[in-house]
Amino acid sequence: MILEEPSTTITDSDERIKTCLKEVFGFNQFRGEQEAIIRHILSGKNTFVIMPTGAGKSLCYQLPALVQEGTAIVISPLIALMKNQVDQLLANGINAQFLNSSLSKAELNRVKKDLLEGTVKLLYVAPESLTKEENLVLLQKVKISFFAIDEAHCISEWGHDFRPEYRRIKQIVDQIGNLPIIALTATATPKVQQDIQKNLNMEEAGLFKSSFNRTNLFYEIRAKIDAKRQLIRFIKQNKGKSGIIYCLSRKKVEEIAEFLCVNDIKALPYHAGLDAAVRVHNQDAFLNEKVDVIVATIAFGMGIDKPDVRFVIHYDAPKSLEGYYQETGRGGRDGLEGYCLMFYAYEDILKLEKFNKDKTVTERDNARHLLDEMVDYTNSGVCRRRQLLNYFGEVYDKDCGFCDNCQKPTPKEQLEKEAVWIIQAVLGTEERFGIKHLVDVVAGVPNDYVKSYGHDKLEVYGKGSSRTPEFWYSFIRQIMVFGFLEKDIENYGVLKVSEKGHKFLAAPFKLTFSTDHDYSNAESDSDDEDGVRDIGAGQTADPVLKKLLDQLLDKEAKRNKIPKYAIFQEPQLNEMSIIYPTTMAGLCQITGVGQGKASKFGKPFLDLITKYVEENDIEPITDVVIKSAVNKSNKKIDIIKLVDRKLGLDEVADQLNLPMEDLLTEIEMIVFSGTKLNINYYVNEILDEDRQDDMFDYFMSAQNDDLEAALAELGDEYSDDEIRIMRIKFISDIAN
Length: 736
What we know:
Layout: H1 14-23, H2 34-42, E1 47-50, H3 57-67, E2 71-75, H4 79-91, E3 96-99, H5 105-117, E4 122-125, H6 127-130, H7 133-139, E5 144-149, H8 169-176, E6 181-185, H9 190-199, E7 206-209, E8 217-223, H10 227-237, E9 242-247, H11 250-262, E10 267-270, H12 276-287, E11 293-297, E12 309-314, H13 321-328, E13 338-344, H14 346-355, H15 361-379, H16 384-391, H17 404-407, E14 412-415, H18 417-428, H19 435-443, H20 448-452, H21 469-481, E15 485-487, E16 495-497, H22 499-506, E17 511-514, H23 543-560, H24 570-579, H25 584-587, H26 595-615, H27 636-644, H28 649-655, H29 660-672, H30 680-686, H31 689-701, H32 707-714, H33 720-735
Parallel strand pairs: 1-6, 1-7, 2-4, 2-5, 3-4, 5-6, 8-13, 9-11, 9-12, 10-11, 12-13
Antiparallel strand pairs: 14-17, 15-16
Helix pairs in contact: 1-3, 2-3, 14-15, 18-19, 18-22, 19-21, 23-24, 23-26, 29-33, 31-33
């Protein structure tokens, strides 16, 4: 649909607003304050919108851009989001374009031409592109309706994704003209909100602040123990649903994406290190549901506007609560179910701290504050929703019942005087200090800083000495969530007593304190009640099938005149009797069973298992076995090629820059999975015939191929490497 050139008056545009809403965006009515926001920006006034992810922020600037003359400039930090929104608008017949580093020269010239001809209704610009002189000159020639600053939290150095280029936006806008601005963000604490308005010189702007409460999202945090197993278990439970997984590094993104694919989950990676064309391909594959899961870096973010993302998983801890809230907000944008799962380990926080070491002192301190808030959120036993909303300055005075802490609460304790002491400490220190100082005062921690202010003379000093400082940190955080204390917006980190806190001090009542989680001692939350199995995680083998497999192994070993372990070993038979593989593909899921071994020895075992499951009405579960990703050292093919050329193993090690021990490990993985590798030329070079015969006879008669047992039997005249090399030759010649 191509809209006709609009009238410039708001009164005349009423019908156009309704028509545009229905015909372009497909909605019969506005949500929340969308209409009020749109009319405010159409009146030419500065507008500040704080609205949670999925609540319809983009409509607030897209629709007014369509009903006004000129081009609306949308400043966005995410190339992915630009492309996604532009694609949607173009599909609806709206000429929207973007200006960023991903454009070719020809594409760039086409965009400039359309701009100068006045046919572009929305131009998406990266902040870095906006600051370029050539683009500034271009925009000065264009009739612009207004500027929209998306992800406005990037302006604030107190925010979770501060970008220096954003702080220059107001300066650049002023050079282009006196134009209205609409700033939008899904995540702004009161401090960040103040910083945004001050930087944009729009303190007088109309403020439209929606609730941060995403009622359809369920929040859960699990100890990061056996996380890959838990990950597969969760995704298998939600088979066919769209999900996003966030990881800390590009390397981890690639690893997890590959791991999911190995386990028959359609997944693709997405991070800044990928080629732009690959990123676009992967994004489109996710949007078009060719893959179920996208794995992305936390730092790069995901600017993907997909309404039916059913789960968001943080495989690694995010660097801030703002980031966490925004990323989880990509789930359930259509208002339907959205599950937000985070795997937490303090080691992730330590890694994030290392990333901050090269920042300026101020940036490092701000990042540390954000990480502290993240740690407090994960550890606290308080309702997750209450914590999140409190962090963004929103009062939520009940437990939601829709998070892990509500459904599986930590132990509770009834307290009253402790809250009184904390409030007295805040007032006694003149509401000028943060948590650490208050803890030191109440716990009676002797230090010069407390003494220098004379706070060791306060009546409340040391009253809580019977409790640990960790208790007091947690307790203060909780009474902040309950609304008795509030943050001082002007002085970051300083706490003040709220009106509710003063009332409590005048008439105290019992408070329920939730003890913190102790993730360091937690066990994996992943059990087998849903039928998902992970080999080696403690499942019990089917004893009847296991006995039948043992008998078959005896028979096959005698028939082939080789040791039993050269066919299958005990752990492999155990796996078979747990997952009941009935196909070659299923058999290859067994640890240590490659295609070669399965092809050579697998058929009688598969026949036995197939008959057994049919007779006993058992459903094979090989489709939910958790498999490890193939060793991707990229050495396997190189090793096979070099061995085929009959290079000595020491030469192979040199060429591949591997210690001999690591090379032998790589070769063992190749051979033990069933691939034949002829190293006879090398064995003949380093071992005479008699020594070879001694070791060959040993492995032929041994009960297993254990190296320590071989060393003990063969004596000191053979080195570890010689025995390993001979074992490789034996397995390759006899079993493959």
